[in-house]
Amino acid sequence: MKKSGRITKNREYRDVFEKGKSVATRGLVLYRMPNDFQVNRAGFIVSKKVGNAVVRNRVRRLLKEAYRRYTGDLVSSYDMVFIARPQTAAYDYAQAAAEMKQVLQRGGLFTIHPGRK
Fold first, then answer.
1. How far apart are CA 69 and CA 46, in angstroms?
2. Which residues pair with 28 in a beta bridge?
3. Residue 69 above 80 pLDDT?
4. pLDDT tens readout for residues 34-48
5. For residue 2, what pLDDT is reported?
6. Cβ atoms of residues 98 and 110 within 8 Å
7. For 59-73, what is the HEC assignment?
8. Integer Cα distance of 96 and 35 in angstroms
9. Which long-range contacts does 61-65 make (Cβ < 8 Å, 24+ apart)?
10. Residue 17: which pLDDT band, with cuts at 50, 70 and 90?
11. CA torsion sign, 29 to 85 to 27 to 84?
12. Over the range 20-58, which residues count as b (16 or more CB within 10 Å of their CB) and which as e?
């Protein structure tokens, strides 16, 4: 993920939490807010409730890969913060991708192109 596509600063996270809207699924919470850039920016939060450092990093990698899978199908110019819930520690890639797709659809950010799954 390129640096231009990431939320990096604490203030940026707080802005999304304060001014953005949220949707949730069983394993993920998505906060989204329109931005002034031409690209989407994403941030991933995995708290200590999910597990130890090894588990948290694994969950973060799964979520980033699932997000990368759908980047071409998203509406542009949004800041998104994904928060993993504790049950995501047991997810494999297929479950993480399905959860990512579901939360993006609920958030109104996912657009389906003809001929794509």
1. 20
2. 84
3. yes
4. 999 888 999 999 999
5. 66
6. no
7. HHHHHHHHHHHHHHH
8. 26
9. 62/88, 62/91, 62/92, 62/93, 62/96, 63/28, 63/88, 63/96, 63/100, 64/1, 65/93, 65/96, 65/97
10. very high
11. positive
12. bebbebebbebbbbebeeeebbbbbbbeeebbeeebbeb
- Which tokens go with 1? 């993920």
3-state helix, strand, coil in the chain (%, to 5): 45, 25, 30
- One-letter amino acid at 13 equals Y
Residues near 16 by Cβ (< 8 Å), separated by ≥ 6?
7, 31, 32, 33, 43, 79, 80, 81
Percentage, residues of the chain above pLDDT 70: 91
Count other C-beta atoms under 10 Å from residue 2's C-beta: 7
Average pLDDT for 94-109: 93
What band does 3 get if pLDDT is binned at 50, 70 and 90? low
